[in-house]
Design goal:
The protein is of the alpha/beta class. Helix content is 36%, strand content 15%. It comes from Actinomadura graeca.
């Protein structure tokens, strides 16, 4: 069977605001994971439209397309094209799960929810000549997950080819998050076994890893055992976590000892009133400054995430947020405009109140206002969002943030990382467009290796040291 898997380009990745460095970071692991279930005799290709063109002249038997909200229009166009050429077309992903009827008009089969239980069932039905129209996930487990088909990924096209996912979902229930809709009907957070996660890490070359899990620290027992198992492997890694996880005694220290050097943290807002409104319970009554201090004291860089446009935000929120983040020495920041994705409680609440401006999914990109804000105009919100990025990454702000570090070396690392991410984008663009992104990885590893209060042991030690959790089978 000839199988073609496609990750269509997000609308924002093809707009005038296209940032190659952002859309060339990570390979499409979801599709590569599903490819692991195919038979050895199947001919399979995987195309990531962010880094390569889709060949529309081929004639595959099966086409599998992963759909996000701002890639839906492109995904449907590709699906229609291949259906007209006689292929059996499958659509799955966050947007399909949220709006299955919309997606079903462009597919022979749709998948709702995670694919680990429904994709193998579909393949068996397809080979038996009776594929279904819709498969809905209900059994949630990562037991027996086949190895990710990394041989299908063109590593040199990505800055972070060693991305990895060892869990699914998140234990929290924030109103603006897609997670509750995607995992409806079963567990919304579950992990691999520690042994399986460590085996996948062992397969990856080099030193650097990036965990793409929504919340790597979500199960403290699993995370602690994973970090124990990774200690001594010589890895340098980045991930995402919550303020609650950072403040948990002992867990951060284990992460640092195993190679954690940079953490994406969802602070979301500097207005405490917004947290209850969005059910961001894990952030309420937490000392954000203490979170940053704890990370910096352990040598971990901070990528702070902030959302603008919640109902307690007024036109002053942008300046206050940037001033706070720069003053705290946050190395990098990611800003978003609040976006009510279909299938979320936020969407339902705003739809009921008549606050949604339209359903043009191309513009639900977290940088365009698609609802009526409570305490400012849509123009104020959008302009403030862009101004926040400009103000945070101006040289004056970068140097001010660097000055918060106690040592000259720390100041230099801060300036190098923050400046390198934004100020040298033209150079990054040239490297990425030349399909040489992978060659920049040693630069990233060099910067990260200077962080961490307890540097990871050399890679050579990993083969001689006993890993505490590697044979425990703990989850």
């Amino acid at each position: 069977m000839r199988v073609k898997m496609i990750l269509p380009a997000l609308t924002e990745a093809t707009s005038p605001f296209f940032r190659p460095i952002k859309y060339s970071l990570f390979p499409p692991l979801g599709l590569a994971t599903l490819a692991g279930y195919l038979d050895p005799g199947d001919e399979v290709t995987l195309t990531d439209e962010h880094v390569q063109k889709v060949d529309l002249s081929d004639e595959p038997d099966l086409v599998v397309i992963q759909v996000y909200i701002t890639s839906a229009r492109r995904a449907y166009a590709l699906a229609d094209h291949y259906r007209a050429r006689g292929a059996h077309v499958c659509l799955g992903g966050l947007h399909v799960t949220s709006l299955p009827e919309e997606a079903a008009a462009h597919a022979d089969t749709i998948f709702c929810g995670p694919g680990e239980d429904i994709w193998p069932r579909f393949l068996a039905d397809l080979r038996a000549g009776r594929p279904g129209r819709r498969y809905t996930s209900s059994e949630r487990t990562l037991a027996g997950l086949p190895p990710v088909r990394r041989d299908l990924i063109d590593r040199h096209r990505y800055l972070v080819p060693n991305s990895i996912v060892v869990s699914r979902g998140c234990p929290h229930v924030c109103d603006f998050c897609y997670k509750e809709a995607f995992f409806e009907g079963g567990k919304s957070f579950y992990t691999q076994t520690v042994d399986a996660a460590l085996a996948e890490i062992d397969r990856l070359p080099g030193r650097h890893l990036y965990f793409l899990d929504d919340h790597l620290f979500g199960n403290a027992r699993f995370a602690g055992a994973l970090f124990d198992g990774m200690r001594g492997m010589g890895r340098l890694w980045q991930a995402a976590g919550t303020v609650q996880a950072v403040l948990r005694p002992g867990l951060l220290e284990k992460a640092v000892a195993s190679g954690l050097r940079s953490l994406f943290v969802g602070f979301e807002t500097v207005n405490a009133g917004n947290l209850a409104e969005q059910r961001k319970w894990q952030n309420i009554d937490r000392d954000y400054a203490q979170v940053i201090k704890r990370l910096h004291d352990n040598g971990v860089m901070v990528n702070g995430s902030f959302v603008f446009g919640m109902d307690e935000d007024d036109p002053d929120v942008f300046g206050r947020t940037v001033d706070w983040a720069v003053g705290q020495g946050v190395e990098t920041a990611t800003f978003h405009i609040l976006t009510p994705y279909p299938g979320t409680r936020l969407y339902d609440r705003m739809a009921k109140a008549g606050r949604l401006l339209h359903s043009d999914w191309d513009r639900y990109d977290t940088r365009t206002v698609v609802f009526k804000p409570a305490k400012m105009t849509a123009r104020q919100l959008e302009d403030g969002y862009w101004r926040a990025y400009k103000d945070f990454y101006r040289w004056g702000s970068i140097l001010r943030g660097a000055s918060s570090k106690p040592t000259l070396r720390g100041k230099a690392r801060h300036a190098a990382y923050a400046g390198g991410w934004k100020k040298f984008e033209p150079a990054w663009d040239m490297v990425i467009r030349a399909k040489k992104a992978g060659r920049a990885l040693p630069v990233l590893e060099s910067i990260l290796s200077g962080f961490g209060s307890e540097p990871a042991r050399p890679a050579a030690d990993a083969r001689t040291r006993t890993r505490p959790a590697a044979r425990s089978g703990r989850r």
